[in-house]
């Protein structure tokens, strides 16, 4: 066994490895279930797959949390409300769980908008990278975060945004300009010539829809609040108090599960109760009333997605790191896993190979990882130096 200590680089790499494997399996499953029936795949639509897959993943998380009793937290702020005594941390962990319950369906709804899946993923990943950096800046100004964001982390943010933005920029017009520039420099650029397809065309047209703007705003705001709360919990624990991320995850996921069940019941009956007739709600109702032939298989395949939730949160809340660093590690790992899942699906099911923009994105990811590696070495060196200073006799 590869033994590591809490907060060490080795532990971080273990979490990244688990997240990478879980995300890769999840990515392959998505491509398989949404594949065309003409090619032997189930042919589920986005809502069908995500409903059953989310049910399976949530059940796995809640089963493990309740089995291991991860809802028990060593409170540093116990509170008394009449005869009831409870950990004060639940006052903000439960809202974090409610935010998680908002993120899950809005992620689903993002895939139902008039927008490509790749562009939806770009917007979601890019927004989290920016949000993580903003959270650090806010908590530094509040005096909650007493660590500095290294220059290398800021540079990594730039390259990470370039990595996720490649899909938006990979348009015929942009390719034509780039090819022309390379030709003027004496370089051959025939591979960049437009092919007639327009993968980036209309990427932002969905913003003209009020419903789409609300979905996107809800996703970003909910995730921003969740990242803020996670880092508030991490950065306000007294020195020597256990961080206990498992208990945080347990309470958060229980509150998220309860919220999802209540909201799902409400939405299912919303046409009768409130007269709501929205395409996404009707698709949700149809999915439950007339399940796809492979709905049970989709639930089982939700296991990797459920496991992914553990690694994701533990990376976001990794001890001794800024939100910027942890958010980048989380998102960059998912980007690499996304490309890997495309390769796995190609060799296992004869799917398409990663596109040129995928490979260009991977180059930017590797550059960002390089800067994060430098930042990690600096932080570990600073940590060792501070520990030696504390042990030095006065």
Task: Describe what is shown at a glance.
The chain is mainly alpha-helical.
Query: If you compute it from the alpha carbons, what radius of gyration comes out, rounded to the nearest whole angstrom?
Result: 22 Å
Q: What strand line-up does the widest sheet have?
A: 1-2
User: Helicity level, as a percent range?
Assistant: over 70%
Q: How much β-strand is present in the residues?
A: under 5%
Q: Write down how many β-strands occur, each being a DSSP E stretch of 2 or more residues.
A: 2
- The general outline is globular
Please count the helical segments. 14
Give helix and strand order, one letter per element, not per position. Answer: HHEEHHHHHHHHHHHH
Low-confidence stretches: 193-202
Q: For this entry, what is the oligomeric state of its chains?
A: single chain
Helix- and strand-based class? mainly alpha
Output mean pLDDT.
86
Q: Main β-sheet: number of strands, strand sense, barrel status?
A: 2 strands, antiparallel
Distance between the termini: 40 Å
